[in-house]
Amino acid sequence: MAVKFFGQFLVEKGIVSREALLKAIELQETVNLKFGETALAMELISEADVERVHKAQWSADLQFGDMAVQLGIINETQMHQVLTRQKNSHLYLGEALIQVGALERESLDGYLQEFKVDQSPYVTDKTDIPPGVINQEMWGMLADLTYKMLGRIANLTVRPGQCQLVNHLAPNCLIAAIEITGQLNARYLLSVSAGAREAIARAMLSQESLEGEPQELLDDTIAEFINVVCGNFSAKAAQLGKTVEIEPPQLIQPDAGNVNSATGQKGLLFPFHLADGELIEAAIFINA
Amino acid sequence: MKKVLIVDDSLAVARQLMKIISAGGEFEPVGHAKNGSEAIKMNLELHPDIICMDMNMPGMDGLTALRSLMALDHKVKVVMITSLGGVGDKFTEALKLGAQNVISKPFEPENVLRVLRALQPA
Do A4 and B115 touch (CB under 8 A)? Predict the structure, then answer.
């Protein structure tokens, strides 16, 4: 199981072929117009306006409609008219698959239900984040995914502690880090005690004993664990309208000392306590 | 036995996949490449039937390597591996470039084997 989109679920399960999915996506691309294209079709803006909005978007992180309003090209009412037209004419993937003959209409609801069940373990809960942090719900979701993945992938029962504002992450047996870039920018770090690292490695490798296994392999399981957490975060963020990229994970050994947040970054710390006194801490250093 | 080349910078993932693939009885892992350029080289040397390749790797990433592999060898079946499952545009790009399917991480062993079994010979 993993966070995925409906089309991937159907192809992975062998319900539709890759060719049929590509055909349905192609159909969606012709029907589902972007905001600017819809506004053009409604004759609310000109090609020159589209160009102007795109250029303005280079220097400010605003959606097309919001930017067009800010530039005085359209007013709020017109923006809502465009959004309503987009919403009403949107062709969903299930419908597109029916239209290209890849799915029977009668079976769609059943597959949507199966998909919902498949994704239900990844429905995230709200995590309390101190006030004044931008994109709170996104970082809360990342912390909650960490907690859920510790249970699902690493088979660990952990008790989450309260989120704190910090400017560093203290060294432990190992720290793994990933850079998150795009519409959300942060450094995600996971610090693990020796026992926690072994527990994660045993679960990730499906092995009772780690005797004789090189430290590199054990460390790599932590890197892979955060890779999966951040990858699934990226997938969830995309579903919520934020495009983010993740870099390959890096490992930081304890002799490097504290890992400090950079100037201008806000640090959040999420402790996860294990029953036997072992500790896992996730930190997110958010770029302002 | 179909020969499978695993391409992933993570030793842990390679280990997981080797176990899953070997347990199926129909597939034989023949090598492990740690990035896209190693994959291209090992594809020429080992002539695998299937390549299971991570999308996100340091050095040459999976999508760049997929493009090269498809240009060099149309016969090999490539299945991409990703933890970025919900990111539809990457998934679609992989299929458009010629990947046969995409497997999500964390792995479900049954799902991995079902995807590999469903691959048709060229």
Answer: no
